Each structure stands twice: as structure tokens, then as C-alpha cells.
């Protein structure tokens, strides 16, 4: 079977390993194709070094996008042999807008009773080696929950013990139950679904990332969304490393119906702590066959090269 890794993150976007550390980790492995998929930033150094090492690669970025009509955020994997200058510029604006929103969100939480400080927040993640321009609202939730007084404040206010995940979804997400109190209103920074079309060229692959997680195992909703996305620009779907057999079967049906490409692999974040959503690099979904992988590998190569 082809040894591919089409979805993983370095320190440029998430958590632990730098490009150099990933290079050291990979240098003795036989690799057919690999590309780093950072959040909202193209890892040009990784791609260029893989090219120098004669390893097949391409430019790939995981774009924060949203269907604002349907109030649904999604990650779209854009994969190309050439970097789009317009996409690069738009992603830089997205990252700057995101960090400004985080600053105002933390100030809003502080003004309404939480113990929080923007510069302490930034320092906490800089010490971990994170790219501060790729932090998000869930990172705020993690930071807030580090302080037990904040957790007690939430419980006393709402007479309910919210988990970190619930706090993120109900307090810090735009359409959360308590967002009218805690969420800071700013211009939307995520790509509008229709906006992505301005960055398409003939060699681009646009793949819907980890649909089993994005749609929280709601297959019917996923199928409706794919129909809409195909009308815009979608030409691929990712089979996540932890997708169930049922999900893979549904994805393959949609692939055939709309003549899509399948993309694969781990969504590895090189995290120290246990994280059920992400797997080790090169970790293949156990329900995938060699035939499916090889067939789609050929389609990807044909599209890009």
C-alpha cells in the first residue's frame, strides 16, 4: 500500500513538533507522498524541504470556512501544486482578524467576572511553542479552565457544572446558548463558502476535512451539505482516520455520485496529552482497502502533476 500522509500539523499551527523535528522523524521512512496541512497558513518551508529531499509533496492548507446561511463552520483542505497569492493574502488577513477577536473576547470575559488577561493568555501559549496567530476560541476555553476560580464562577452563575467543551460551545461560539452574554461580536473572519471559489484553479483539490467529526455523526446533514458544496467547488472528501465503517460507506457512495476524489490520513497534531480526535502520523483508517487508497492516490497525482 502507498505510504501517504495528507493531513497533519506542525508547530506552525498546532502544538508540538517544528519542521526540523518532523524532518528528523521522517528521514528514515519510505514516503510516497506527504504534505503539511496547517490551519489557515501555508507551510512553505516544509513543502520546499520535501522537494529538496525528492519526496513528492504539494501545498496544502486547512481553511477555516463557514456556511453563514446554515450557521455551520467547516474546515476545507485546499491542495495545489502552486501557491495562490490571493489565497495567501486572504489567509494572512484571517489570522490577524482571529487574534484581534481573541483579544477582545478575553477582555469581554474579564470585564464580566472571569479571571483572564490577554497577555498572560499569549504568554501561556508562546511557552508551549504555539503560533499565536493560529489560536482559537477553544484555546480560550482551555486557558479559562486552568483557573479553578473561573470554573467555580461559572457553576455559581448557572447552577450547572459545564465541561470545558460545553463552555466553548455554549459561551464562546457565535450560535451558543449563552453567546448573547459572553461572545464578542466582530465581523466574521472565516471564509464564506462562496468566497473560496475566487481561489480555484484547474489543479486545485478542495476536500471536506474529517466530516465524521465536523457533522457530529449526523450523516443525513452531511449528505445535504455535500450536495450544496459540490455546486460551489467541492471535488474531494477526506476519510478521517477514526471514521466508522458506516461513514466510509456513505462517503464512497457520495464519491461515486459526484465523481469526487478521496483524501486520507491522520490529522496528527503531535500532542503530548491524549486526544481521541487525532492519530499518529501515517495512521490509516482500518476500514480502508489498499485498492481504494491506490486508486485515489492516482487521481490525486493526475490532478496535481
Tell me what the structure shows.
The protein is α/β, with parallel strands linked by helices and 305 residues long. It folds into 2 domains: 4-84 and 201-304, Alpha-Beta Barrel (TIM Barrel), CATH 3.20.20; 92-182, no CATH class. Helix content is 44%, strand content 13%. The chain has 12 helices and 9 strands. The protein has helices at residues 19-26, 44-52, 85-111, 118-127, 137-145, 148-158, 164-172, 179-182, 211-214, 219-232, 245-258, 290-304; strands spanning 4-5, 33-34, 37-39, 59-67, 72-80, 191-192, 205-208, 236-240, 261-265. The strands form 2 sheets. Strands 3, 4, 5, 6, 7, 8 and 9 form a 7-stranded mixed sheet that branches. The chain has a two-stranded parallel ribbon with strand order 1-2. Helix 10 (219-232) runs parallel beside helix 11. The two termini are 20 Å apart.
SSE blueprint:
Elements: E1 4-5, H1 19-26, E2 33-34, E3 37-39, H2 44-52, E4 59-67, E5 72-80, H3 85-111, H4 118-127, H5 137-145, H6 148-158, H7 164-172, H8 179-182, E6 191-192, E7 205-208, H9 211-214, H10 219-232, E8 236-240, H11 245-258, E9 261-265, H12 290-304
Parallel strand pairs: 1-2, 3-4, 4-6, 7-8, 8-9
Antiparallel strand pairs: 4-5, 5-7
Helix pairs in contact: 5-7, 10-11
> Which topology of the largest domain does CATH recognise?
TIM Barrel
Instruction: Kindly provide the name of the CATH class of the largest domain.
Output: Alpha Beta
CATH architecture of the largest domain: Alpha-Beta Barrel
Shape: globular
Radius of gyration: 20 Å
Distance between the amino and carboxyl termini: 20 Å
Supply the number of structural domains: 2
How many beta strands in the DSSP annotation? 9
Q: Helical proportion?
A: 40-55%
Instruction: Note poorly predicted spans.
Output: none
SS summary, helix count: 12
Strand content: 5-15%
Amino acid at each position: 500500500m502507498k505510504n501517504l500522509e495528507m493531513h497533519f500539523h506542525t508547530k506552525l499551527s498546532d502544538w508540538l513538533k517544528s519542521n526540523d523535528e518532523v524532518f528528523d522523524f521522517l528521514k528514515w521512512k519510505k514516503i510516497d507522498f506527504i504534505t503539511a496541512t496547517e490551519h489557515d497558513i501555508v507551510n512553505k518551508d516544509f513543502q520546499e524541504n520535501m522537494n529538496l529531499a525528492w519526496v513528492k509533496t504539494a501545498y496544502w492548507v486547512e481553511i477555516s470556512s463557514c456556511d453563514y446561511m446554515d450557521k455551520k463552520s467547516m474546515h476545507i483542505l485546499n491542495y495545489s501544486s502552486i501557491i495562490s497569492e490571493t489565497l495567501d493574502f486572504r489567509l494572512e488577513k484571517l489570522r490577524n482578524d482571529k487574534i484581534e477577536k481573541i483579544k477582545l473576547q478575553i477582555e469581554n470575559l474579564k470585564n464580566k467576572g472571569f479571571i483572564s488577561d490577554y497577555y498572560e493568555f499569549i504568554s501561556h501559549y508562546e511557552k508551549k511553542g504555539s503560533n499565536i496567530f493560529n489560536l482559537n476560541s477553544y484555546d480560550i476555553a482551555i486557558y479559562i479552565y486552568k483557573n479553578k476560580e473561573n470554573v467555580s464562577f461559572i457553576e455559581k452563575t448557572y447552577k450547572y457544572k459545564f465541561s470545558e467543551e460545553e463552555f466553548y460551545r455554549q459561551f464562546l461560539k457565535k450560535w451558543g446558548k449563552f453567546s448573547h452574554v459572553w461572545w464578542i461580536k466582530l465581523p466574521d473572519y472565516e471564509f464564506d463558502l462562496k468566497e473560496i471559489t475566487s481561489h480555484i484553479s484547474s489543479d486545485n483539490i478542495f476536500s471536506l476535512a474529517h466530516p465524521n467529526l465536523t457533522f457530529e455523526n449526523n450523516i443525513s446533514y452531511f449528505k445535504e451539505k455535500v450536495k450544496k458544496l459540490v455546486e460551489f467547488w467541492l471535488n474531494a472528501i477526506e476519510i478521517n482516520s477514526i471514521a466508522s465503517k458506516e461513514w466510509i460507506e456513505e462517503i464512497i457512495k457520495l464519491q461515486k455520485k459526484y465523481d469526487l476524489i478521496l483524501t486520507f490520513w491522520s490529522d496528527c497534531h503531535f500532542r503530548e496529552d491524549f486526544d481521541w480526535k487525532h492519530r499518529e502520523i501515517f495512521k490509516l483508517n482500518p476500514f480502508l482497502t489498499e485498492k481504494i487508497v491506490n486508486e485515489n492516490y492516482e487521481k490525486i497525482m493526475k490532478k496535481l502533476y
